[in-house]
Amino acid sequence: MERFRRRVEASGVSAPDSVELHRWSVDDPTAFWSAAWDDLGVLGEKGDRIIETGEDMAGTRFFPDARISVVENLLDGRGAPDDAPAIEYRREDGVSRTLTWAGLREEVAAFAAALAGQGVGEGDVVAAWMPHVPETIIAMLGSASLGALFTSTSSDFGTAGVVDRFGQVEPSVLVAADSYLYGGKSFDRTEALAEIRAALPSLRALVVVSPLEPRPIDAIDDATSWDEFTGPHAGAALVVERRPFDHPWYVLYSSGTTGKPKCMIHRTGGVLLKHLQEQQHQCDVRAGDRLFYFTTCGWMMWNWLVSGLASGATVVLYDGNPAHPGPEALFDLADELDLTLMGVSAKYIDAISKSGLRPVESHRLGSLRTIASTGSPLSPDGFRFVYDDIKSDVHLASVSGGTDLCGCLVGGDPTRPVFEGEIQGACLGMDIQVYDDSGSPAGVGEQGELVCAAPFPSMPITFWGDGGDDRYRAAYFEHFPGVWTHGDWTLRTVRGGFVILGRSDATLNAGGVRIGTAEVYRVVEQFDEVAEAVAVAQRVGTDSRVVLFLRMAEGASLHDDLAERIRRRLRSEESPRHVPAVMTTVGDIPRTRSGKISELAVTAVVNGDPVRNTEALANPEALALFADRPELAR
Length: 634
Description:
Elements: H1 2-10, H2 18-27, H3 29-40, E1 44-45, E2 51-52, E3 61-62, E4 67-68, H4 70-75, E5 85-91, E6 96-100, H5 101-117, E7 125-130, H6 134-145, E8 149-154, H7 159-169, E9 173-177, E10 179-182, E11 185-188, H8 190-198, E12 205-209, E13 223-225, H9 226-230, E14 243-244, E15 248-253, E16 263-267, H10 268-282, E17 290-293, H11 300-306, E18 314-319, H12 329-337, E19 341-345, H13 346-355, H14 359-362, E20 370-374, H15 380-390, E21 395-398, E22 400-402, E23 407-411, E24 425-426, E25 432-435, E26 448-452, E27 462-463, H16 468-476, E28 484-492, E29 498-503, E30 508-510, E31 513-515, H17 517-524, E32 530-540, E33 543-552, H18 560-573, E34 582-585, H19 599-606
Parallel strand pairs: 5-18, 7-8, 7-9, 9-12, 12-13, 17-18, 17-19, 19-20, 20-21, 33-34
Antiparallel strand pairs: 1-4, 2-3, 4-14, 5-6, 10-11, 15-16, 16-27, 22-23, 23-24, 25-26, 26-28, 28-29, 30-31, 32-33
């Protein structure tokens, strides 16, 4: 950050500190993004034009003449020796694997050649239903080598959740694990894999990875093992082709609050540039660093972590439960591999603080410069725990953004003070504002909607499918016309920081992962005993938990056996994160005059907030049924 500030000042810009640097980055986005490209070391042809203004914010294009390659940028190594580690993999049971830069290039080349043998090329989709293993990264880079899109979700997602996502994008190749390990237990996914294969008729090939031990795959149509798929192509040349800045790279998925998850198509250059800016400037990632984020392949932090390769960092993967066999697991990892950045969730920091572990006494953490936290707001107590009980001279970078932009809106700044409970400020180049209900800027300390008032490079290209442009604009630019509305409730502090207060829409946040209410309802309402349901997020401290209210069918009741069957079905068909923390019954559910369940009104009552726009409700008296519920005591 400081190196970049000095370079900018040397060019004639007055930027005495990073606050003024941010102001310049917003006031002169053309100069900023051009300077950022150079400073971040992006490999490719920048072109002469930096920003091409569209008819609206969504239509603005960055670097319209540029050409870049994901493979070139992520596999360059920034001067690292061929035998230096590019990926360090560790599993909860101690299994480890190191991939050197040379070895990673060879495996990517072989996988890309195998895909080409299946006719995969630009416009095709390669999907991965995988744990957090090196093969997922290899599959992504091999796909990008050919210009194909890549999409992934984690192995703990159930069949319905996987098919709802991948079924929309019709992948040509699916890479999937037949098992995974979590919390000391192994999970066999072969039966679910057969169901998923049958539901994806677009597949030309199914490539099966066996992380635990080989299992028979003969019963699954078109299945071949990873080694059988890539083996014949060992020694293939690495294909590096530069493509336009807006060439599609990833498909990520929305939370599915009103139906199947929306499929966001993210652009190559925009995501890469945004990740490099966040990592190098906001988090001080340097060539040769050891970059770690605890994530799964179903969260955009996986995409963020993998981009660390483009800065010449070694990316560290941890596969399994971060508290297995004990709360010290990730701190042991930090000491073993000399991590420089350790990324975790706010919920993880809270759990460690309650475990009794004090890493400041039990671990070296000598190389650790940055602890990053995201997923949900980090409490003031969490900030104090990091500095008192983990490491006193670390940069605590609390960040917030999301799948929607595959990056961060607000985050850390290693040159500014950290104040407990606050995110330090907006990321460079991001015109972050807080709007009140009328669309006017809210005052300092006043709650409002988190918005970005100017274009940025990692806005999605569009949503997948018919009407994708219209659905994309409706999702982010209709609430306040022409301004990106993110769906977070926030406030700005007197120090220029931000406090995220939770979602302002109907999206649920479970363990730092956003999930959609529609996915919950589809499972729950299959039960004859349930007439209808409403799921909301209840704030607990600075975190949140999922609460599910059921209106029972006539003559039915919510007994322990039914509750357990509902939980089991949610876990198997969707994911463990879809299982509510609290499940209870209610006599009526508020609806709008058009007949839609008003999740926002219920959320407000449950959290003790004022209900806005009650005149839009057909039965506002139902709100009283959700107030002062003893089972919701926090």
